[in-house]
Amino acid sequence: MTFAVVLAGGIGSRMGNSDTPKQYLMLGKQPIIIHTIEKFFVCPEFEHVIVLTPKAWVAHTENMIKKSLGETDRITVIEGGSTRNETLMNAIKFIEGKYGLDDDTIIVTHDAVRPFVTHRIIEENIEAAKKYGACDTVVPATDTIVESQDGEVISQIPNRATLFQGQTPQSFNAKKLKALYEGLTDEEKDILTDACKIFAMKGEKVYLVEGEVSNMKITYPFDLKVAATMLGGDFDA
Amino acid sequence: MINSIYQLTAPRMIEVTYGEIDLSEGGVLIRPTHLSICRADQRYYQGARSKEVLAKKLPMALIHECLAEVIFDTTGNFKPGDRVICIPNTPTENDDIIAENYLRSSKFRSSGFDGFLQDQVLMQPDRLVKISDDVNPDVAAFTELISVSMHIISRFDKIAHSRRNSVGVWGDGNLGFITATILSKLYPDIKLYVFGMDYDKLSYFTFADETMHVDDIPDDLMLDHCFECVGGAGCEPAINQMIDHINPEGTIALGGVSENNVAINTRMVLEKGLRVFGSSRSGRADFEKTVKFLEDNKVETHYFETLIGETFDVRTISDIHKAFSADSALRLGKTVMHWNK
Which CATH architecture has domain A2-137+164-230? Predict the structure, then answer.
């Protein structure tokens, strides 16, 4: 079975003036998180959509979903964990409790603040995770990436042709992810904040799915302005 | 839900824009899978419409010939994964007498509003017709064009008198090919002639009883009814030739689009008591008939397969440009985009 896992754990401390977590801010006619959830909800491949939010926002998120999609038993909102990986583990725990985990359980994990994700990206994630066990959505790096060990001088400039910027979804075989995560030491857990990194560090292959530049993360007030402008065109969908 | 829409903003310029799909409005969410380029799309793309028309219509997503997959349905008519043909004509009122494709209030995709170059489209269920998985998807992609021929023939059947010994189709392009194919199947007793300008193209009409260059038509060849599938500047001499070669009280079906006024020999139309009727686009009934035709007639569907020119896997806007560029060089046939953007 395949599950969508929408990660809305961030408290949005980077959104400047707003106290509202950024995923709950309005973009067009809907909150950002609803745009994102709907994109996954309509995909027939997903048995269930699990949304992970800060504890205080669980009921609020449930209300929002009910308002936009009506009563549905295909979405569950649960509390996220203290870190991104702990949040993922909460999702896996939920799946394990309700459906059981088997070798074919796939999770497609996505940032709630990336509402511009496309149908193709989601489909290719499902396909790649089923085939390879893990995949990451990326776009080729456009800026030159500079590495500095001490934050003062450049230690190296990697070849941009081999660099990609990570987006989401990131998709995994859930059983494999759980086993790898549980095998980490506490110290490793602190360092390996990205689930794809866990796979890569443990010598597992993580395949690349082509993202879209528009699949942007709404992190800063600037991003929200860009996103609102992107939606503001004259259109008829 | 945010949707990506790929609009023509100026000739040869396609840009992505974003819109919202409101699922609470209800409907069937579809994902286009196979998109076929129509001459009308090509005219917009090339900027071969008047400045006023372009200013009025653009920006607009092109493509009205579309095979799609159902993603999500709030209406209970379809299930996810169903393959459907999308009907671009979108009526805004019901009329017991006037067909939906002739109501002036109807909107048409990639003409009056956005076509199918989109990530997903929310459609009303009556704008979708389910099609079997057995039909070649590249042919299914241009069902809309086939339904236009089906529409012309259905109207011909109602309008034309019953003596149908010989029928002529003028035009060796896509519309002529499809119209002649359907006629040959639905009316096997008719002696079917196809007239064109290009010997190579005429050689594809193997199912017709006779094919002829328009310069070689014998003076004494007379036909009961005629179909004009030429369009453009060529339709004027074609229609006049039909008037010369048609028997009294015959019917001429006009199907080719011309941007200019056409001068025809009305004296002879009057003298022979001809019926000349026009057809444009098609409606749900024509789509249903066409889908059944494709599902039931393997041989004819194979004929349509020969029309498939190049197919393009479209993952980028640049791939869309490649498809339109290749299509503009086609003498006969259809360009189909496999939509993976």
Answer: Alpha-Beta Complex (3.90)
- At A28, phi and psi to the nearest 5? 65, -130
pLDDT in tens, B102-152: 999 999 999 989 999 999 999 999 999 999 999 999 999 999 999 999 999
Which residue ranges of chain B lie beneath pLDDT 50? Answer: none
SS3 (DSSP) at B151: helix
List the domain boundaries for chain B. Answer: 2-142+307-339, 148-278
Nearest to A118 among B22, B24, B119 (CB): B119
Q: How far is A27 from chain B (nearest CA, A)?
A: 9
Looking at beta carbons, which residues of chain B come within 8 Å of A42?
1, 23, 29, 71-72, 120
ipTM of this predicted structure: 0.85
Q: What residues have CB less than 8 Å from B116, skipping those under 6 apart? A: B32, B35, B61, B63, B64, B66, B68, B86, B88, B109, B110
Interchain proximity B114–A236, CB inside 8 Å: yes
Consecutive H or E run containing B228: strand B223-228
At residue B36, what is the residue type? S
Could you tell me the pLDDT band of residue A235, with boundaries at 50, 70 and 90?
A: very low
Pairing of the two strands B28-36 and B60-61 = unpaired
Here the tokens at position A65 are: 């979903």
Distances (CA, A) of B298 to B136, B180, B305: 10, 16, 10
In CATH terms, B2-142+307-339 corresponds, of 3.40.50.1000, 3.90.180.10, 1.10.3720.10, 1.10.530.10, to: 3.90.180.10
Q: Tell me: the pLDDT tens digits for A110-139?
A: 999 999 999 999 999 999 999 999 999 999
- Looking at chain B, which residue has its C-alpha nearest residue A65? B24
**Closest by Cβ to B20, choosing from A119, A234, A237:** A237
DSSP B44-81: HHHT-S-HHHHHHH-SEE---EEEEEEEEESSSS--TT
B313 contacts in chain A (CB < 8 Å): none
CA A89 from chain centre, in angstroms, equals 14
User: Going by C-beta distance under 8 Å and a sequence separation of 6 or more, which residues neighbour residue A21?
Assistant: A8, A10, A11, A12, A15, A54, A57
Q: Do residue A43 and residue B71 have CB atoms under 8 angstroms apart?
A: yes
pLDDT tens for A136-176 read: 999 999 999 999 999 999 999 999 999 999 999 999 999 99
Tell me which chain A residues have a C-beta less than 8 angstroms from the C-beta of B31: 119
By C-alpha distance, the chain A residue nearest B26 is A69
Q: Which fold has domain B148-278?
A: Rossmann fold (3.40.50)
Nearest to B21 among A120, A234, A237 (CB): A237
pTM value is: 0.91
Domain coordinates in residue numbering, chain A: 2-137+164-230
Is B19 in contact with A39 (Cβ distance < 8 A)?
no
